[in-house]
Amino acid sequence: MARLRFDILSLFPGVFDPFLHTSILRIAEEKQLAEYHLHDIRDYSEDKHKKVDARPYGGGPGMVLQCEPVVRAVEAVGAMGERSARTILLTPQGRRFHQKVAEELAEEDRILLLCGHYEGFDERIRKLLNFEELSIGDYVLSGGEAAAMVVVDAVVRLVPGVLGHEDSSSRESFAEGLLDYPQYTRPPMYRGMKVPEVLLGGNHREIEMWRLQEAEKRTYERRSDLCDDNTRDSE
Ligand code: ADE
After folding, report:
1. Is the residue at 77 inside a domain?
2. E strands within 42-191?
3. Candidates 121, 140, 151: which one to mutate for ligand 1, based on the most atoms within 8 Å of Cβ?
4. What pLDDT, in 10s, does the model give residues 183-213?
């Protein structure tokens, strides 16, 4: 049994496949540090045409996901596996997802992600399931799938042992509230642009200091909002 189990409920589970089985997420699965279970909400519809949505009461555009298939799907999937899951609904109306939330989620052993589609969910689904709601940003996607991928990716790379270099995730952008410092690799000169001398020198203390200064400078110039810790924590 892997260290962290994801259950993803969606109307389009097929869109996750290449994403979950490539690069870091695949490595995590191979190392049995994460496992991904996809579930098609439509499989839980009792309608003979597998319908899961209907027009909104009161009129208006689009279709609304119905209670019955969604609640049945969540209850059935929740009962799979031995552990109880932290349950999350992806919606633009949720709490903002950011690195601190990812760190918190990486401590869990099971996470259930419910992706909405169309114009949203019947409000009684929200009331009944009482899921934690997360938004990946202030824009409206046509479904929660891309948002679920963002969450899985940001969380899995924080699971200890997933990244080769044990502390590579804690050194990068946001982990310490700073944007990443600039990185260089071979060759030392490209189209007249030189790699900063300090990085070629091999003095680790100087390199650490230079990187910290660069990270601070970049954060201040590009994201001064991150320099104010209170802003980050209350997001
Ligand atoms: N579904 C649609 N838009 C979304 C967003 N911004 N975050 C999370 N889920 C969503």
Report:
1. yes
2. 53-54, 64-65, 86-96, 110-115, 132-135, 189-190
3. 140
4. 999 999 999 999 999 999 999 999 999 999 9
